[in-house]
């Protein structure tokens, strides 16, 4: 058994994993790599469960099988009349047998085989760990995206509709009719029905229609409408368009939503809370504003994935609209009829996303592109 067969590698993987899991806290608590190595080297002395680990039992059995005959032979030599007698100051029997065994070819071959096999096992464990980590990250990202999309769907829905409707394909004429019904001059009920129909259309059809520019204006107008149903259904369309995960959809919906939010702070009819009054999250106007910022923040987390394919367009449009929104000052949001100043956009984003890790990613990419 001086050579470990390939199938043994598969047996050693879980045993090594079990050992590492058992001492994980001790190793992770080490202040340095050197200290962690010291812990491993003296594990037998410090861990009372050392001899109970399955890996230790396995290796002990392996060593006994590989070197058993060598140890017996050396023991006989050292204790026989032909062997060297032990006197004062000389090695003990155990020390002699140990030294002779370590000098044997069987021992050297065993160590080579064991070392090579354990290197393969460790490398395999590392690869498996990396794969599991990537899978968990992808699963977490997918789950988070689904939860966020679901949140936007749920929070932007109303009692008379469901966001999880099947798509209804529309031609140019049908979309043109919807645009006409969305005109601010139309009765509120007609505009509501038009938005409901628009949310059922494939985002690609809507974004590629000939009347998209006019339609986008009407959507922004609906977003600003005091009627909560119109505002929510318009936001539903933005959320559903974002979920289509295409660059054009992201660019169009993001820049449009960012410009709308900027206008919320610079308009004289702004319903944004003031610094002195604070933020009342039970206020319907504040809730709607938070919903919009929540959706915008989801865009901010996802758009870096589109950056690789469209770096120039990304910088020119999405980054510019973001910086414009974040640059809104107290002077811009100052109300002429009041001495109070309203909260700035950055406060809302900070409330929804305290770490804002997306911002660091954006800045790194901007710097890298400028240096190209």
TrEMBL record:
Annotated BROMI middle region domain residues: 173-363
One Pfam family in the UniProt entry: BROMI
InterPro entries named in the record: BROMI_M (IPR032735), BROMI_N (IPR055391)
UniProtKB keywords: Coiled coil
Domain BROMI N-terminal: 12-138
Taxonomic superkingdom: Eukaryota
Keyword Coiled coil: yes
Coiled coil: 97-142
Record-given protein name: Uncharacterized protein
Source organism per UniProt: Chiloscyllium punctatum
């Amino acid at each position: 058994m001086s050579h470990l067969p390939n199938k043994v590698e598969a047996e050693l993987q879980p045993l090594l994993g079990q050992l590492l899991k058992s001492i994980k806290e001790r190793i992770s608590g080490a202040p340095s790599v050197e200290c962690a190595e010291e812990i491993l080297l003296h594990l037998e002395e410090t861990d009372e469960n050392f001899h109970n680990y399955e890996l230790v039992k396995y290796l002990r059995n392996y060593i006994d099988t590989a070197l058993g005959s060598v140890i017996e032979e050396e023991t006989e030599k050292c204790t026989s009349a032909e062997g060297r007698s032990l006197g004062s100051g000389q090695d003990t029997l155990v020390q002699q047998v140990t030294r002779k065994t370590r000098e044997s070819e069987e021992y050297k071959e065993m160590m080579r085989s064991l070392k090579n096999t354990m290197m393969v096992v460790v490398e395999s464990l590392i690869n498996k760990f990396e794969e599991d980590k990537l899978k968990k990250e992808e699963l977490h990202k997918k789950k988070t995206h689904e939860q966020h999309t679901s949140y936007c769907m749920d929070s932007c829905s109303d009692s008379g509709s469901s966001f999880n409707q099947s798509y209804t394909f529309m031609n140019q004429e049908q979309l043109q009719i919807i645009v006409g019904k969305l005109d601010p001059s139309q009765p509120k009920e007609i505009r509501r029905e038009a938005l409901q129909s628009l949310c059922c259309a494939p985002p690609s059809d809507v974004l590629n229609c000939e009347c998209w520019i006019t339609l986008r204006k009407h959507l922004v107008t609906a977003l600003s409408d005091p009627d909560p149903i119109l505002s929510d259904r318009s936001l539903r369309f933005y959320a559903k368009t974002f979920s289509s995960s295409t660059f054009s959809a992201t660019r169009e919906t993001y820049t449009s939503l960012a410009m709308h939010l900027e206008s919320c702070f610079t308009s004289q009819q702004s319903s944004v809370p003031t610094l002195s009054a604070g933020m009342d999250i039970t206020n319907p106007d504040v809730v709607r504003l938070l919903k919009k910022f929540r959706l915008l923040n989801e865009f901010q987390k996802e758009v870096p994935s589109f950056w690789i394919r469209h770096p120039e367009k990304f910088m020119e449009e999405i980054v510019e609209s973001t910086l414009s929104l974040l640059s809104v000052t107290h002077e811009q949001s100052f109300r002429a009829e009041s001495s109070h100043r309203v909260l700035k956009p950055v406060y809302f984003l900070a409330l929804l996303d305290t770490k804002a890790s997306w911002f660091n990613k954006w800045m790194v990419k901007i710097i890298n592109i400028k240096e190209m």
